Amino acid sequence: MKIRKILSFGLIPSLLSLGAVISCQNTEKVLTAKSQITANSQKDEFNLFVQTNLVQTILNNIYKDEEAKTDYINSQINLLDSNYLNIAKGALRYANPITRSLNSQRSFSGNFWFKKTVADTFEKSDEVIEELFNKNWLFLLFHYQDLVFMQDQNAEGNDVESIKKIKESSENILLYGSFYKPKSNHFLDFVVQEYDNNDYSNIKKIFILTEDGFILNINLEIYQPQPKYDENYNEIPGETVTQEPSVEVFMYIFTYPKLLFSKNKTNDFDLKKYIMDTQSFVGFDEYGNDTKQVLFIDKYGGTELRYTVIDISNQNEETN
């Protein structure tokens, strides 16, 4: 009888353990299936995003060869399945413009190895963020809605100007908020500015109006073929070398009060006029446009608001 009791008692944990294993296995299958659906859905969204006019314009300016364009797109798709967004999020903690500014003014106390560790961390973080905002610009634009921005007004100038700008900045933070997170990666309009075209390269600036009324800047530089030289620095007849095109997505975005609160942003804001009145062109005096710039800023609320990227909100990580 005692033996039977022991055997009965011994079976209960076994059955519970088996049930727990089955339950865990089923849960894992559900989570795996859910992750697979999410991954497939994200790839579908990415493929649709690639077909937008803005992305196609950038790609066609950079790549004249369809195979090279396809290879680049595939390299960005591969990043979707990786931990790259989390890596970028970690790096941005050290390499965002606000942190950089603070650390440039800060002297780290401690021994040599501590200082070296800090320096190495910032250097590696800078490399990750530079790659994100340059080489992996397509991945970045696709995840635009995951970026977190902080209002960061320019307080440079003499003492009187600096005090005035600091006061204005404090007022702007109260009026328009310290932080901003985009609602989506949907862009309303964009204009390509032919900034410069010479024997060395063709520079184009792209100004993008976002759904929330912010202006995002992207610089493209397409390099011209250059003569190729041998080891003795003699030009090789008929042979050229071409540097890879460069892309830079600016970490700052801009807006104006009236643009920010406009109910019909494309109707109320002329992106082309913004470029003509506030941006410089090669061959023109960049200071000669000050009057137009002041009038433009006055028209849209009297102040230019600047926000900078400080963080990445990875919603996929939060929901999984």
Biggest β-sheet, characterized?
7 strands, antiparallel
Structural class: alpha+beta
Count of beta strands: 9
Strand content: 15-25%
Q: How much helix is in the residues?
A: 40-55%
Low-confidence stretches: 1-21, 30-34
Helix segment count?
13
Q: Please report the distance between the alpha carbons of the first and last residues.
A: 50 Å
Rounded mean pLDDT score: 80
How many separate domains? 2
General shape: globular
Strand order of the largest sheet: 2-1-9-8-5-4-3
Radius of gyration: 27 Å
Quaternary status:
single chain
> Secondary-structure element order, as H and E?
HHHHHHHEHEEEEEEEHHHHEH
Textual characterization of the structure:
- It is a single chain.
- The protein has 320 residues and is of the alpha+beta class.
- The protein folds into two domains: 99 residues, no CATH class; 161 residues, no CATH class.
- 53% of the residues lie in helices and 21% in strands.
- The protein has 13 helices and nine strands.
- A seven-stranded antiparallel beta sheet has the order 2-1-9-8-5-4-3, sandwiched between helices. It has a two-stranded antiparallel sheet with strand order 6-7.
- Helix 4 packs across helix 6.
- The longest helix has 49 residues.
- 14% of the residues are buried.
- The N terminus is likely disordered.
- Keywords: Signal.
- It comes from Mycoplasmopsis glycophila.
- InterPro entries: Aro_clust.
- This is Lipoprotein.
Summary tags:
320 residues, alpha+beta, seven-stranded antiparallel β-sheet, two-stranded antiparallel ribbon, disordered N terminus, Lipoprotein
